Every structure is written in C-alpha cells, then in structure tokens.
Amino acid sequence: MIKNRVCWAFGALLIAGLALIVMPQLMSKHHYYRVSKEALDIAALEAAIKMYYTTHQTYPHTLSDLIESKVGIIESIPIDSWGNEYKYNNPAKVSNKRFEVISLGADNKIGGEGDNRDIFLSN
Fold first, then answer.
1. 66 and 49 in contact (C-beta within 8 Å)?
2. Which domain of life is it from (predicted)?
3. Three-class DSSP category at 58
C-alpha cells in the first residue's frame, strides 16, 4: 500500500516536472505560429494590393476595395489570430513606405510586447 503511494507520488512529481519543462516551449511555439499566420495574411494582402494597383493604377483606399473592385481580387478580408481586423495605411504611418498592413496584436493597440506587439510588413 505504501509502495503504491510512493510510486503514485513519484509519478505525479515526474509529470509535473515534465509539464514545467514542456509548457513554456509549447507556449512559445504557439506564439510563433500566430505570428506566422499574421505574416502570411499580411503578405497575401500586400500581394492583392499590388494586383489592385496594376489594374487601377492607384492603391486602394481601404482593404474592402480589394473585394469590391471589378476584378474581385480576394473573396474576404482575413482577420488576425486575435479576431481583429488588419489595419491598412495608405500612405504608411509607421514606416516611410508607400503603404502598410498591420496586425496590432492581441490588445489591438499600437505597440506592445509578446502577443501584444504589432506585426507588419511595409512596401
């Protein structure tokens, strides 16, 4: 009986120890995958914006113009991993480029760290 309790306690400590080692790694990978999704979405939106420019000789005023244009470049505007819409600035506000598409992160506010940091590519 005591031997079973010792084995159970040892097993519980072993599982807790493994969880302490594995969980931070899983959480950082989760953050990595979220950022990768945003990077892919932003790259796709930027490609659609460039296609719009090729057709109309001007950049769209909003991301919705990509759907409503005569060519219908994309079917819908993606949302980021936190359920927020991507921000489109034409001209760019954060960088010195022509336009930019930004995910403001989990807090949907400018700036931040970790899940709250802004993710953008600019052209």
1. yes
2. Bacteria
3. coil
* Residue 79 falls in which region: left (phi positive, over 0), alpha (psi -120 to 50) or beta: beta
pLDDT 10s digit of each residue in the chain, 123 long? 555 544 554 545 455 444 445 445 544 444 445 557 888 898 889 888 988 888 889 999 999 999 876 667 888 899 998 999 999 988 877 767 788 898 998 899 988 888 888 887 755
pTM over 0.85: no
Are 42 and 103 in contact by the 8 Å Cβ rule? The answer is: yes
Amino acid, single-letter form, for residue 102: I
Helix (H) or strand (E) holding 26: helix 2-56
